[in-house]
Amino acid sequence: MTTSQLDQLVAACHWIGAKGWAPATGGNMSVRENGEFCLLSESGKDKGTLTSGDFIRVSIADNSVASGRKPSAETGLHTLIYRLFPEAGAVLHTHTVNSTVLSRVEKGAALKLQGYEMQKTLAGQSSHLDSVSIALFDNDQDIAALAGRIESFAAVNPLRYGFLLRGHGLTCWGRDVNEARRHLEGLEFLFQCELQLRLLEAK
What is the pTM of this model? Predict the structure, then answer.
């Protein structure tokens, strides 16, 4: 990881904060440092004002923090993503209204998106005719148990771009900060479209 990647993550956090996508110190963001460690946002910090000093080195293998500082409560989800996807270079977790509401409205195991041109903001997507599936997991305060369920799902099902936690929000990733940020913005646009479409269809 280069210093610029951490700088880009700090800039992305400020952008997320300005959009109101991580209110009341919610959310957490990280970047892969190397094969052994990631740098994860410290717990209880306003994402709109983070500095590079607000990120903590965490062991990807076992979530340990040599500094003794307190990383985000969802540390285990970030390290899981880095273990499952060696190509993942950054992870963004937000608490937006669209993702939170859709995660409760959708009763299935995944949110299916199809017919939107903006699906092409997601890596590997080339047509609005394709179907994009965003996995949905029930929220759990036991992060180790939640990570275990997600890992079991990923062992037999494709898990790309990100996943939703019911009543909680979106966790997404990319090869680097810029791709993770593009995935976040693209998915949020798609979530807003899908939510508006369902509201109109319900009338």
Answer: 0.94
